[in-house]
Automatic annotation (TrEMBL):
<dbReference type="InterPro" id="IPR036390">
    <property type="entry name" value="WH_DNA-bd_sf"/>
</dbReference>
<dbReference type="InterPro" id="IPR036388">
    <property type="entry name" value="WH-like_DNA-bd_sf"/>
</dbReference>
<protein>
    <submittedName>
        <fullName>PadR family transcriptional regulator</fullName>
    </submittedName>
</protein>
<dbReference type="Pfam" id="PF03551">
    <property type="entry name" value="PadR"/>
</dbReference>
<feature type="domain" description="Transcription regulator PadR C-terminal">
    <location>
        <begin position="91"/>
        <end position="172"/>
    </location>
</feature>
<dbReference type="Pfam" id="PF10400">
    <property type="entry name" value="Vir_act_alpha_C"/>
</dbReference>
<dbReference type="InterPro" id="IPR005149">
    <property type="entry name" value="Tscrpt_reg_PadR_N"/>
</dbReference>
<dbReference type="InterPro" id="IPR018309">
    <property type="entry name" value="Tscrpt_reg_PadR_C"/>
</dbReference>
<feature type="domain" description="Transcription regulator PadR N-terminal">
    <location>
        <begin position="7"/>
        <end position="77"/>
    </location>
</feature>
């Protein structure tokens, strides 16, 4: 998730101070990616250093306001038109866990898969309930539509992971069946 670009997008609506940006970011993403206020101010500092935002006075409460520069607006437009590349993928703990469990003596891969499946089932139930609530409220405001899109992304991602777990389980079952029917290998002669 590009916090940098998310903040630029929020600043396009007008000057904002850090904690307001944090609140709006979390509202827009359905509170699924909470931000630390320190993260917000560190990112604002970098954006300012890079000439993408400037400090623009303070509000009545004394909060320093940040505004988008022309360079910031150009960077935001460029970000919106670029594809999100999936070449530098973050490590996925579940994929690593299953890959390591395959060769680990004493690892119960089926139990690992089933534990993850139960977790995903509960998560999907939560995401689906939140999505139903958002739909029932009739998303009319762009923040509500944005929240709905994020919730739907989480539902689809959980569904995809469930399908992958089904695939893993089927592959492991075929592997176990093949190992059970393979004739035993003769011992290697000693030299």
């Amino acid at each position: 998730m590009s916090i940098r670009h998310g903040l630029l997008a929020l600043l396009e609506r007008g000057p904002r101070y850090g904690s307001r940006l944090r609140t709006e970011f979390e509202a827009r993403t359905g509170s699924t990616w909470p931000l630390n206020i320190g993260q917000v101010y560190t990112t604002l500092g970098r954006l300012e250093r890079d000439g993408l935002v400037v400090q623009q006075g303070a509000d009545e409460a004394g909060h320093v306001l940040y505004a988008l520069t022309d360079e910031g607006r150009a960077e935001l437009r460029s970000w919106f038109t670029r594809p999100v590349e999936r070449t530098n993928l973050p490590r996925d703990e579940l994929a690593i866990k299953l890959a390591m469990a395959v060769g680990a003596p004493g690892a119960d891969i089926r139990a690992t898969v089933e534990t993850q499946r139960r977790y995903l089932s509960e998560a999907m139930h939560t995401y689906t309930r939140l999505r139903a609530q958002a739909l029932a409220e009739g998303p009319g405001h762009r923040d509500e539509v944005a929240r709905l899109l994020v919730l739907e992304h989480l539902v689809f991602r959980a569904e995809a992971e469930m399908r992958w777990l089904d695939h893993c389980e089927a592959r492991l079952l075929r592997l176990a069946e093949a190992a059970a029917t393979d004739p035993p290998q003769p011992p290697t002669p000693s030299a």
